[in-house]
């Protein structure tokens, strides 16, 4: 009788639709070598737009469509943020940023495999990752299972919400974009 009760309790928490969604997300991620997209990023109610290319593992190149013409580049070890107009240049070890985790496909897959997902507004599948000092919410489309954004805190503890669109997978890319820009 006790075993039956345990089994019934366990089955009441099991949702095959979420399990199937999780598997589809994982399978799609396993097949992804790179992803290109447009984004809208909100930091403290300030919105910025641009485009990015992520190449796994841990490489990213983003161009912002703003007056400063900011770029973000990671070669997998170092993250550089450069303001093309003023020449301001910031260098961070990637392991000190949430991008260290977000740009590591194998890490994300390993976390998604063990995390519980939740459905948000019947449109998004969300996983929350708590790792060291990082709290990362990643969101996937509930129908296509594409990555559609994330929510983190930056190094100044500002809430950063990134929504991605116009997603393209496994396009031919020029690896030279991941070479860190030089200081002016």
In percent terms, what proportion of residues is strand? 35-45%
Largest sheet: 11 strands, antiparallel
CATH architecture: Clam
Judged by helices, strands and strand pairing, the structural class is alpha+beta
Coarse morphology: globular
Mean pLDDT: 88
CATH classification class:
Mainly Beta
Residues in helix, %: 10-25%
In which order are the strands of the major sheet placed? 6-5-4-3-2-1-11-10-9-8-7
Measured distance between first and last alpha carbons: 74 Å
Number of domains: 1
Query: CATH fold name, please?
Result: outer membrane lipoprotein receptor (LolB), chain A
How many individual helices?
A: 4
Q: Which characteristics define this entry?
A:
outer membrane lipoprotein receptor (LolB), chain A, eleven-stranded antiparallel beta sheet, alpha+beta, 184 residues
Quickly describe the structure:
This protein is an alpha+beta fold and 184 residues long. The chain has helices spanning 2-13, 16-30, 99-102, 105-114, and strands at residues 34-43, 46-55, 59-64, 70-75, 78-83, 89-93, 118-120, 124-131, 134-141, 147-153, 159-169.
Map the helices and strands:
Blueprint: H1 2-13, H2 16-30, E1 34-43, E2 46-55, E3 59-64, E4 70-75, E5 78-83, E6 89-93, H3 99-102, H4 105-114, E7 118-120, E8 124-131, E9 134-141, E10 147-153, E11 159-169
Antiparallel strand pairs: 1-2, 1-11, 2-3, 3-4, 4-5, 5-6, 7-8, 8-9, 9-10, 10-11
Helix pairs in contact: 2-4
């Amino acid at each position: 009788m006790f075993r039956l009760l345990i089994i019934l309790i366990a089955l009441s928490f099991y949702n095959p639709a979420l399990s199937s969604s999780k598997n589809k997300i994982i399978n799609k991620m396993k097949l992804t070598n790179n992803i290109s997209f447009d984004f809208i990023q909100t930091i403290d109610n300030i919105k910025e737009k641009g485009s990015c290319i992520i190449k796994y593992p841990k490489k990213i190149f983003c161009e912002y469509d703003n007056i400063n013409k900011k770029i973000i580049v990671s070669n997998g070890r170092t993250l550089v943020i450069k303001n093309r107009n003023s020449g301001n240049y910031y260098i961070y070890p990637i392991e000190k940023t949430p991008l260290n985790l977000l740009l590591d496909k194998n890490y994300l897959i390993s976390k998604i495999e063990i995390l519980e997902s939740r459905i948000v507004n019947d449109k998004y599948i969300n996983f929350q990752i708590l790792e060291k000092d990082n709290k990362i919410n990643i969101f996937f489309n509930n129908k296509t299972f594409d990555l559609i954004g994330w929510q983190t805190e930056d190094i100044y503890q500002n809430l950063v919400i990134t929504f991605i669109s116009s997603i393209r997978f496994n396009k031919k890319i020029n690896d030279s974009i991941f070479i860190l820009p030089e200081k002016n």
